[in-house]
Amino acid sequence: MREFQDKVVIVTGGSRGIGKEIVLAFAERGAHVVIASRKVEACERLAEHVRSTCGVRALPVACNVSDWGDCDALADAAYDEFGQVDVLVNNAGLSPLYPSLVEVSEALFDKIIGVNLRGPFRLSALIGSRMVADGGGSIINMGSVEAIRPTPAALPYAAAKGGLHLLTEGFAREYAPTVRVNTLQLGPFLTDIADNWAEGARERIEETVALGRCAEPSEVVGSVLFFAGSASSYSTGAVLRVDGGWR
């Protein structure tokens, strides 16, 4: 429980859903948190909550991870405030609905790739290199079962997540042996994205996974803490399935 005391953790997409659960888990264990998302007001509310309930420091930062400059600004803000980053969780993600593959616009495609792939690349490059200079750290990417089981309804997203899996191994080699880089391959979680699933989609998904249900956002926490801490000291470049036994 004390392993993360006074560590500094950045969570993108950290103001709600899975990201919020990750922020709370680290704060409850004594870590200082950098909460990043596009809507800074939501980040500020969560930051105030963890300060008052957990007694840790919290820095809210407005950041659109698809924007190269915003990624640079997020890294600078974190280091200016804390002087270190021990864990980076690339959690921000985006999977918009579209009528058909042929109707995916260039702007929509670029947006999906920007949030799910370009942002994690830039943040991992910036922060991972500083982690190496500081003696170590952990980068955790939030992947998806779509990377290996793509569906037509989310194909650009699946391609981005497939790229994220490759980035994981590449950065793991680049920053070894002191910085570890791993990915969680997520299945169906009941986040904002699930609110926009087509009618009957949840029922079909729950027939597909071995556990027979979708996951609550809090159910990702154990796997994140595993990759962030010493329990996974010999894991890097790895992909861990957190998908309910997707078949």
TrEMBL record:
One of its GO terms (molecular function) is oxidoreductase activity. Gene3D superfamilies: NAD(P)-binding Rossmann-like Domain (3.40.50.720). It comes from the Bacteria. Keywords: Oxidoreductase. The keyword Oxidoreductase applies. InterPro entries: NAD(P)-bd_dom_sf (IPR036291), Sc_DH/Rdtase_CS (IPR020904), SDR_fam (IPR002347). The keyword Oxidoreductase applies. Belongs to the short-chain dehydrogenases/reductases (SDR) family. This is SDR family oxidoreductase. It comes from Nocardioides acrostichi.
